[in-house]
Amino acid sequence: MIVHTRQPLRFFRELGALRGASALTLIVGTVMTGLLGPPFLAAAIWRGMTELAGEAPISRLADVYTYILTLLGAQAVFLPAIVAMRRRGLGGVGRAALLMPGYFALVTAATWVALIELIVRPFHWHKTKHGVTAPATAKIAAPQNNIALR
Fold this sequence. Notes:
Order of helices and strands: HHHH
Radius of gyration: 20 Å
């Protein structure tokens, strides 16, 4: 987000107003989901498991809204992964589904680490070393059209 907004006029000139706004919304939404999603979901689950005397109905409605957003967000990440796995002929969709909560936890942790490091060490960059591991041995099939989810 910081990189893309260094020169906002150039950013919007190159992408256009609608695409630029869409890109920023996606980027900001991803970061905010990593930062605020788990605490809001945990609070909603806690309230759902405990009876709070005198709680306003709007509070319960907000909890339902939180549950719906969480499920839709998980679906928005999980379904493209399933489609991509099927197109490449990869198995293990069930295993991927079971590991998805762990993935979300790691994304949340990485987002919080990034925010803390942005505050504490704003000019530090964790550079990823590529090509350190051996190449994957999994056979990748050619992309297929017309794939039905089972």
